[in-house]
Amino acid sequence: MAAAAPGGAAGLCRLLLPLLAAVTAAGGSRGATGGMLYPRESPSRELKELGGVWSFRADFSPGRAAGFEQRWYRRPLRETGPVIDMPVPASFNDITQDPNLENYIGWVWYEKEVLLPQRWLQDDLRVVLRFGSAHYYSVVWVNGVQVVEHEGGHLPFEADISSIVQGSPQIPCRITVALNNTLTPHTLPPGSIEYMNDRTRYPKNYFVQNIRFDFFNYAGIHRPVVLYTTPSVYIDDITVTTTSSESVAKVQYQVSVVGSTLYSLSLSLRDQEGRVVATGDGPAGELKVPNPNLWWPYLMHENPGYRYFLEVKMQAQANEALLEDIYTLPVGIRTVHVTSTQFLINGKPFYFHGVNKHEDADIRGKGLDWALIVKDFNLLRWLGANSFRTSHYPYAEEIMDLCDAYGIVVIDECPGVGIKMPESFGNKSLQHHLVVMEELIRRDKNRPSVVMWSVANEPASELSPAAYYFKTLIAHTKALDPTRPVTFVSDTNYAVDRGAPYVDVICVNSYFSWYHDPGHLEVIPLQLTAQFENWYKTYQKPIIQSEYGADSVPGLHSDPPLMFSEEYQKAMLREYHSVFDKKRKEYVIGELIWNFADFMTNQGTTRVLGNKKGIFTRQRQPKSAAFVLRERYWKIANESSCLPPIMKSHILFL
Ligand code: GCB
């Protein structure tokens, strides 16, 4: 990523690195402690959304350090210098006409002033400030007092700000955020700053940020920011796992409460009609559900995505008052098993016919956008897709909620993308990666739609440190969640991949006739068959084709098919599909097209306003390939599901 560096690029990194070190010392690498329940309103919890227009200032000073040196968090941002309006949630890159902001690297500052209801200022109440995600490194102050630091985009973080807002008469309360999008060999994803010191070719202090992943490094406050309340004694976390037989299901639960050791817990599980089907009490136990409605994937059942609702009620005596906290968690009852040839959901073979996506759109970049989210789910269902991988980072909780509700199956991937440099396999990187998996599992562990964790995409898994790295990372992931299989996505040759021995499912990406033998569609059957047979012979594990695809520029036609035309993309799909159809009778358990929609990348000679491998355009219009895929996915669904035909045609017109 080329960046105009207004002097002091070295300072930029000098500034970031001590901060990362400070966090490690302060406990950042100790791991994800405490719960991270999605903020939901309840009789005991109130919520205030802070989306809208925030004040914004990019620190264009030499070294990008002026904000810290002058302590911009100490006073209203507008008093420190010129501010502009910035929407939240959104990436900041594409909001203005300024190319310097589009490609900016370093610290940017956000600020919002908020009025809190008087009743939130009582001292038996907890006020929490929560960010769904902000990219990449965040420092947050409330009324000038630092409340939280967080490393990494794509995952939530929060801070209890009760003592600040309740102790200070300052109204409104001022939230200041400093965000830095610099990537280092030890961040996830990794990156590096390269200084261009040849004065005959580059201006003074010129630097670029190198990345080894193929999407634009959008930055900003990407997901909702909320303030919510709980009583001072509160339900901090809930973990559920489920098992089932024909006639009865078991929901094992664990609840943690913070703020007191003297409390009681009661739980009731309701079905979708609101009937209580099981009750329990205490911090851990098992609920038995007779004749359960299982959570089924889309197109596998006439009522997919069935969720019960677990109402957890906590009562505690504190300072002679009775405190009550209520949190309701959606629960899907389903099981997942992997054999040497199959992926079983509720004991039935599941074939992934789906997509890889990105959080990406015009103007808002990676910012959450409800219209886009709902449109995408309508397109997925139109397509007959039953699954997607969250390539290449965890998606918004709001998206995951809809996966749970619609029965869209998810391979949940962490931001371990572009791990190519040898130094990114060292202990420092590994420790951070372990923490990121802790944060991801803490967030998504209760989601029925999530059936597998992916710890990385296309790492340099042939390097010798990759063996220890993936052994440790996958063992840690399994220890955190023994109920789900774990994978990472490989493009390394089967014979030299050092991470593959540790995964449960082999996920392979290949681009025959595109990056290899470009233009030669005729090599696909041979090469793809060999790919599957080699992997299976080596590991006897089921295989997902986790990426395959070709760029097409919408409206570009050629017959016979030539690269970049819509016809070529279609022809390439068909060649792949004929091999999938043979191998899915054996051990191939899924196919995920690259990509659902066109998306923005860094500029380069192989990218035309971004990556064009979408079957939909970036604006969500179908290319010809979308119709090929739609026909195929509905055909597979019809062959394998037990839905009555009338139900299928009803779904077709959703
Ligand atoms: C890949 C990567 C993906 C790229 C894609 C491509 O292997 O996993 O992030 O966008 O190829 O189009 O090159």
UniProtKB/TrEMBL annotation:
InterPro entries: Beta-gal/glucu_dom_sf, Galactose-bd-like_sf, GH, Glyco_hydro_2, Glyco_hydro_2_AS, Glyco_hydro_2_cat, Glyco_hydro_2_CS, Glyco_hydro_2_N
Residues covered by the Glycoside hydrolase family 2 catalytic domain: 336-637
Span of domain Glycoside hydrolase family 2 immunoglobulin-like beta-sandwich: 233-334
GO cellular component: extracellular space; lysosome
Subcellular location: Lysosome
Residues spanning the signal sequence: 1-31
Alphabetical keyword list: Glycoprotein, Glycosidase, Hydrolase, Lysosome, Signal
Residue ranges constituting the Glycosyl hydrolases family 2 sugar binding domain according to the UniProt record: 47-231
Cross-referenced SUPFAM superfamilies: (Trans)glycosidases, beta-Galactosidase/glucuronidase domain, Galactose-binding domain-like
GO MF terms, alphabetically ordered: beta-glucuronidase activity; carbohydrate binding
Activity regulation (UniProt): Inhibited by L-aspartic acid.
Main location: other
Function: Plays an important role in the degradation of dermatan and keratan sulfates.
PANTHER family noted in UniProt: BETA-GLUCURONIDASE
Entry's family note: Belongs to the glycosyl hydrolase 2 family.
Subunit structure: Homotetramer.
Protein name in UniProt: Beta-glucuronidase
Naturally occurring in which organism (per UniProt): Anser cygnoides (Swan goose)
